[in-house]
Amino acid sequence: MKSHYDVAIIGGGVIGGSIAYQLAKRGSKVVLLEKDRLASQSSQAAAGMLGAQVELGTEVGPLFELAVKSRAMFRELTGELKDISGIDFGFVDKGMLKVAFEPEQVAEFQEIIDAQQKMGQPVEWMNTTEVIAREPEISGEILGGMYIPGDGQVSAPELSLAFAKSAAALGAEIREHTEVLSLVLEQGSVKGVVTAEETISCDKVVICAGAWSGILLKPMGIDLPVYPVKGECFSVLTHKPLITSTVFSHGCYMVPKRGGRLVVGATMKEHTYDRKVSFDGLATLVERAKRLLPQIREAEWEKAWAGIRPQTGDGMPYLGEHGDWKGLLFATGHFRNGILLSPITGCLIADLIEGKTSEINLSSFSPTRHLIVKQ
Amino acid sequence: MKSHYDVAIIGGGVIGGSIAYQLAKRGSKVVLLEKDRLASQSSQAAAGMLGAQVELGTEVGPLFELAVKSRAMFRELTGELKDISGIDFGFVDKGMLKVAFEPEQVAEFQEIIDAQQKMGQPVEWMNTTEVIAREPEISGEILGGMYIPGDGQVSAPELSLAFAKSAAALGAEIREHTEVLSLVLEQGSVKGVVTAEETISCDKVVICAGAWSGILLKPMGIDLPVYPVKGECFSVLTHKPLITSTVFSHGCYMVPKRGGRLVVGATMKEHTYDRKVSFDGLATLVERAKRLLPQIREAEWEKAWAGIRPQTGDGMPYLGEHGDWKGLLFATGHFRNGILLSPITGCLIADLIEGKTSEINLSSFSPTRHLIVKQ
Amino acid sequence: MKSHYDVAIIGGGVIGGSIAYQLAKRGSKVVLLEKDRLASQSSQAAAGMLGAQVELGTEVGPLFELAVKSRAMFRELTGELKDISGIDFGFVDKGMLKVAFEPEQVAEFQEIIDAQQKMGQPVEWMNTTEVIAREPEISGEILGGMYIPGDGQVSAPELSLAFAKSAAALGAEIREHTEVLSLVLEQGSVKGVVTAEETISCDKVVICAGAWSGILLKPMGIDLPVYPVKGECFSVLTHKPLITSTVFSHGCYMVPKRGGRLVVGATMKEHTYDRKVSFDGLATLVERAKRLLPQIREAEWEKAWAGIRPQTGDGMPYLGEHGDWKGLLFATGHFRNGILLSPITGCLIADLIEGKTSEINLSSFSPTRHLIVKQ
Amino acid sequence: MKSHYDVAIIGGGVIGGSIAYQLAKRGSKVVLLEKDRLASQSSQAAAGMLGAQVELGTEVGPLFELAVKSRAMFRELTGELKDISGIDFGFVDKGMLKVAFEPEQVAEFQEIIDAQQKMGQPVEWMNTTEVIAREPEISGEILGGMYIPGDGQVSAPELSLAFAKSAAALGAEIREHTEVLSLVLEQGSVKGVVTAEETISCDKVVICAGAWSGILLKPMGIDLPVYPVKGECFSVLTHKPLITSTVFSHGCYMVPKRGGRLVVGATMKEHTYDRKVSFDGLATLVERAKRLLPQIREAEWEKAWAGIRPQTGDGMPYLGEHGDWKGLLFATGHFRNGILLSPITGCLIADLIEGKTSEINLSSFSPTRHLIVKQ
Q: So what's the ipTM on this one?
């Protein structure tokens, strides 16, 4: 074993970057290991919505609480990461608008509004006229929508790089094209990681390899039930933005990016690691986009892409230490909320590593709720 | 004037390349001037159909004759250009299939079949069963089609490069990023071309600048009514080809390229030089492709692009010398048939430059049929 | 004439964008015409140094004054353009360091320091130890350098887009792929511009087509002696930045960009529009970079590119109205200082168009100092 | 187990493609599993030399014999794969020239010439004048060279795709983005492969995962000592080719590709999977290229890239069945000769799978010569 680190982080996406950043900031000696390039998988593909309220709907439990807390961290993070890395990750807080095309949705939205208002989260119903007043290009076909002022958005690839590069500037070591083959597990503790090139000694290991986390652990008899869900997106360009808020509809969302880019997502196909964009997935999104925003017809086509999100059986991420192996931590399974949850995940994991007691109850996210150590 | 050439060719697309190749082969001192990169406009964008019969339908006049003759030149050209440049331009002679979705089309196809058979060109009607037997993935919704065994296809960008690079190997000089600003016209003859960097002396000039040909000539008072028609395309990928022949339908064609790539084209938008792919154009093509070849849904999306084709008032290209200015020749306005007509255009123009009398009557293509020299 | 505008701006680079932005902000009806894409030429290629002091050395005349004033505008512009377009153009004000390898340079630097200090511009001499203390990776071979705290840098492509997209958001119309063929000049005034697609009526025209400005005007008998100077650059990547300030040496500069990108430039080749990167130019830069910053050997190679800068006979840009044609303005010839001078150029031209008297004496930049109207 | 195949091939590079092609042609039901995209690693990066004689020098043993036999297969393969897939893989048989800059090399070359001539392989010494007569752009600084008429070259990425796509056309199933996690090994035989998505039942498995082969097998206790050697390359473009034969010198080779592209390679860095191009590696190649071919200075820079080649302890590939596990075959470790050896490797492995006795003695390539099954 050539080198020793306090913490080895496996996975160079937004979660790994955030953890590396928090740990480097607190003085830990960190190595971030990424088998491809930084942010080359779902962190690259994500549309970057911070949809704490829009994504979780009536599920106002622990994940909702976590999401709302994480969302609140972005404003400060903007300046912090820009100062260190120079990267502006494009935080926009112009709210989100979820519109209804069907009467059933109107009723459903009302329930969500009630549930979230009870939690003290601002959200309001807007009728068709009010929606159109706010976003004049949206189809007059809609039956109204709910407006969530607090749900913003960021550039996901740039947030991911901002975390990792800030971590590097603060002393973290980043190794790309470095595949972790197995962990060194001895006497109930993690002792290091084995890469294709060498064995790295460390005190703690954090697994944040997204949909690949389970694959990595399987040969060691550790079963982490994370499965892949492919999502396809496309983007168009205009000189003058078509919309200002993020707009959400049944099976389609539109996120207005800087300079007139509009990202439209996303399909969902479970249990595949195949990152190809399917003709069919794209054709479906194109159809939905036309219905929601007729003026998109005049936009310039840019490109299409796909990413593989990590999902879990109960839809909750795995955050915390493994019960059987000391020093082995997990931060994965964030599904469509990885970008949103990245700031708080970084802090929570850094707290756990430092032995701080968290003000957040992590029991719902325990990696042992499903984990079975085979032997 | 620093240098002297026999011929200066303006435009580095497939037409300019073909002319440069023929002239270099015959020993002329040639310079090819291209304002951007070789084959950077419609020669790059073309799907590469050699649709002598499919494109011209019942119009079995001089253009038809020219197209059929040009088509016959590809087989020999394949070996010739590959030997010189190393480039295989992907000539495929597996025929073309034009299918009908509407009863009117069935009648229309019958007329075409009659007209072309009279000209001695093989073409046959196939009923739905026969079409599906040939191309099993085509929609069963079709009412039959006509099969043209002689219409093949090539890779348009590679044909264009093969011409130009073969010309270079035979001594032609190629200058990219070289914009021609005006011609030197004296005493009824062309004497040279003025570029942004220098004046080049030459005996003949050939204008083959596609949709930009008229723009180039206008400041000199020469009116060449060529106008732009945008075409948008997209491509998908499969490992096993979905079709083997080129398939043509109302408003959509599909050209199977090497390695399982399928090119689908093309929209038509007149009077614009804007090369952006519009969302609307793409959405329309996507819809048509799904109808014609349902199995395309399973294919991988690759990309979309556009090109600007040069069209003329009567749909005939301009081929020949200008009446008023000796040594000023034109080879442009090929619209959707530039790839197909490139071999014969190269030979015809080289013949004219050498003073050979052509066996082809070029009066229908005369640049003076429309040309008005302003005074 | 279909449409009427207050001002037509010809050229979609950083200068055209800045003028469009200022005019749109002040309520003018503006159209920006770009023959290719926005920022597709030298504004895309520029390294983005704001080298008011480093570039101009002992020449502390009118251009120096202009440069210093323009430099001072960036801080405010950062927030302004980001608010409107969402684009952060990466303004960094960590100073510039110009280092000497030869004793002659040491003497030369001392003269510059004296001249600039007299003008009240901060600049200080640093010996080798002080330079290395500031930038530890710089070669110990250097003999010292001068440090200019006020000279910063930006991302040139993003600044260009931020201007244009902000202009669009404020109502300016942007037309890409729109080539201007000539101007409508009548009775001593400009009346419009003729594009390949239509004639656009307007009251004023601003020519900011960089190295192509002269080409555009020539057919109208207006001689604007701007000539092209090619510059080649390359970039490397590291996780942790190798330097923090921009570093300048004989024939080579290095600009540290966000996220660990390092841009190295730039060669100079006069009188060519050929944008290809030459092997030779690149090899020379690679050699110089190794000498200046030995640690660059460990960096990752990213890519190389080139741009075509507009230069004038006396090195001064053309800023102002044409003497003979009312309403015809020029803003070009900024050579290596286009990015730096873009903010003030936008304001000056907007002032002229509004008829405001400028506090800056523009006589040194007069387009009539060279301009000869042929008849 | 959802599906059953005769053979599962692990690795979609040139070796996997060749084996898939041979097996599909002989009627086997084959699945090719590739964790990324086809030909995405060293098969993409290779310069495509068929250097049977130039690479092996005086080592005229079993590998030499294999290489010479494989080289002889390319001519026929050209037509065969083009007919099926449409892909022309750019086979060029214009020989190879290895030049000497140092007197020691002259002596060394003479030994090679003797050894190879004894094996009946044509190779001749050329003095400086003869070399320059053949390749006029080569530096006059050289002391002569050896010319090998039989060593040609191909386009490595296209050969790889031609194999795989031809295999697909003949019925082989290709699955990209499909990572193999482990093998199903029971009762001394291979029974299937476990991917991230499912378990695939099959009778035979061929491991041709290049430098990743050992990593794949390690968790199963099978030790295959293949290690990675990074190679960096770059390319330049000219309209007229600078050289016609492949030219080899100390630490640098140049392969002229179709259309005037010239590929220059390659560095060697052992024991790294990091595919980044290093500034240092590139600078070294640039320096060597300038010395060997001074005229390269005038060429256009295109790009740089890297690949990871699989090397073994004794420099011999692993070809054959594993001693302990029936049905488990290896075809990896081809180092710099993967492209060259791909045709014969495909045939040899297909023969082994069919139970045919090979005319070639494979004992030197036995996977058991190093292999130690732990347990």
A: 0.94
CA atoms within 13 A on the CB side of A11: 28
Residue C110 CA to residue C124 CA, distance in Å, equals 9
Closest CA to A1 of A182, A251, A261, A193: A193
Q: What is the pLDDT of residue D2?
A: 63
Q: What is each CA distance from B3 to B192, B200, B353, in whole angstroms?
A: 10, 6, 20
- Chain-chain contact of A178 with D276 (C-beta, under 8 angstroms): no
Nearest-angstrom CA–CA distance, D82 and D74: 12
Q: Which residue type, as a one-letter code, is found at position B369?
A: R
In this prediction, residue B266 has a pLDDT band, given cuts at 50, 70 and 90, of: very high
Per-residue pLDDT, averaged over A28-42, amounts to 98
- CB contact under 8 Å between D301 and C236, yes or no, is no
Q: Locate C356 and state its tokens.
A: 């405001």
Using the beta-carbon criterion (under 8 Å), do C215 and B275 form an inter-chain contact?
Answer: no
The DSSP secondary structure of C93-115, one letter per residue, reads ---EEEE-SSHHHHHHHHHHHHH
Q: Which two tokens stand for residue C203?
A: 């009251």
- The DSSP line for B263-307 is EEE---EES----PPBHHHHHHHHHHHHHH-GGGGGSEEEEEEEE
Provide the pLDDT for residue C59.
Answer: 82
Compute the distance between CA of residue C374 and CA of residue C106 in angstroms, rounded to an integer.
47
Q: CA–CA separation, B166 vs B89, rounded Å?
A: 12
For residue A271 the two structure tokens come to 């249990």
d(C-alpha D145, C-alpha D129), whole Å: 10
Q: What is d(CA B8, CA B33) in angstroms, rounded to the nearest whole number?
A: 7
CA-derived radius of gyration, chain B: 21
Contact call for D176 and A274, based on CB within 8 A: yes
Instruction: Evaluate if residue B374 carries a pLDDT over 60.
Output: no
CB A194 within 8 A of CB A182: yes
The residues that bridge with B115 in the sheet, in sequence order, are none
Q: Which tokens in the block code for residue D356?
A: 């045919």
Q: Under DSSP, is residue A122 helix (H, G, I), strand (E, B) or coil? A: coil
C307 by DSSP, 3-state: which?
Answer: strand
Looking at the partner chain, which of B278, B279, B301 has a beta carbon nearest the beta carbon of A279?
B301
- For chain D, strand residue ranges (E) read 4-10, 30-33, 96-99, 124-126, 145-148, 173-175, 180-186, 189-195, 199-207, 222-223, 226-237, 246-249, 252-256, 261-265, 269-270, 300-312, 318-321, 328-332, 372-373
Axis-axis angle for helices D279-292, C279-292 (nearest 10): 130
Inter-residue contact C70 to C345 (CB < 8 Å): yes
Q: Which two tokens stand for residue C249?
A: 């040496």
A172 φ, ψ (degrees, to nearest 5): -65, 145
- Pick C165's closest partner by Cβ from A162, A174, A259: A259
In this model, does residue B5 exceed pLDDT 70?
Answer: yes
Q: Which C-chain residues 276-335 have CB contacts (< 8 A) with chain A?
A: none
pTM listed for this prediction = 0.96
pLDDT at res. D55: 81
Cβ of A270 under 8 Å from any chain D Cβ?
A: no
Beta bridge partners of C320: C330
Alpha carbon D298 to chain centroid, angstroms:
31
**Rounded Cα–Cα distance for residues C110 and B191 (Å):** 55
**How do strand A226-237 and strand C199-207 relate by DSSP bridges?**
unpaired
Q: Among candidates C158, C138, C358, which has minimal Cα distance to C245?
A: C138
Please report where in the chains the tokens 């919505």 appear, as a residue: A49
CA distance B249 to A185: 63
Helix and strand numbers, DSSP H then E, in chain D: 11, 19
**Rounded distance, CA B329 to CA B346, Å?**
12
